[in-house]
Amino acid sequence: MTVVETPIREVRGNHRSTAGVHLVARDYPKGLRLDPHMHREAQLVYAAKGTMQVTTPKGRWLVPPDRAVWVPARLEHAIDVLADIEMRTLYFDLPWLKREQRNKGLAKEFVVRVSPLLHQAILALFDGRNTSERTELLVRLVMLELHQAEDSATFVPLPREPRCRRAALIVLDDPTGNHEIEALAHAVGTSARTLSRLFSSETQLSFKSWCQRARVAAAIERLSTDADVSVKQLAAQLGYASVPAFSAAFRQVTGRTPTEFARKG
């Protein structure tokens, strides 16, 4: 496992502010993968444009442009670039988080919905016009916004139990398929009853709800990376009987319809 001592120096700007924060801006092309690694610093990862997937031992998050992911220090994670991204990352020194009493609730990874205010604050940190005072004020504003309620709508929890994890990966490899729990259980060497119980205990979701979350995550990925896909096409590809049924499932997970999501990005 690679432990990155400090953020990689980037041509587009990387500096430590007086607030104890590294600022790193970098663009990544679609298809690039940042293999599992960890940092000594905590970090807030935001793609101003594009979509990425962040994977930790706990699960997978899809991170479209209206989300940002918090990754605690020394947490193993990998990043897959699903569409060309403009990544803006803030690395927080742990002594600063402790000194500023900003570490409450930041011990585990989570995804937040990026408000217009948080979006502008992050971009302002990278506009090249910062004095020490301005940078510190913007960092404090970012932290205040970050402490809003977490949004896990794009999170697909991954079970740790080997049989259950194998079943989950089968579904994730083909989220559009019609996966029956009996067939999955047979494939991983257990009973449907046991697999159902494992999904519930390992992910806090029923098997049916977990599969719905996986399908919605696949829909989010398509909507974020394919501007030409229609909601009707997507509903059919994901195995929903109708657009209203797909929209209802999508809203249940994300709080928005597929059309609203595609429009807002």
TrEMBL record:
<dbReference type="InterPro" id="IPR018062">
    <property type="entry name" value="HTH_AraC-typ_CS"/>
</dbReference>
<protein>
    <submittedName>
        <fullName>AraC family transcriptional regulator</fullName>
    </submittedName>
</protein>
<keyword id="KW-0238">DNA-binding</keyword>
<dbReference type="InterPro" id="IPR011051">
    <property type="entry name" value="RmlC_Cupin_sf"/>
</dbReference>
<dbReference type="InterPro" id="IPR009057">
    <property type="entry name" value="Homeodomain-like_sf"/>
</dbReference>
<keyword id="KW-0805">Transcription regulation</keyword>
<dbReference type="InterPro" id="IPR014710">
    <property type="entry name" value="RmlC-like_jellyroll"/>
</dbReference>
<dbReference type="InterPro" id="IPR003313">
    <property type="entry name" value="AraC-bd"/>
</dbReference>
<dbReference type="Pfam" id="PF02311">
    <property type="entry name" value="AraC_binding"/>
</dbReference>
<feature type="domain" description="HTH araC/xylS-type">
    <location>
        <begin position="165"/>
        <end position="264"/>
    </location>
</feature>
<dbReference type="InterPro" id="IPR018060">
    <property type="entry name" value="HTH_AraC"/>
</dbReference>
<keyword id="KW-0804">Transcription</keyword>
<dbReference type="Pfam" id="PF12833">
    <property type="entry name" value="HTH_18"/>
</dbReference>
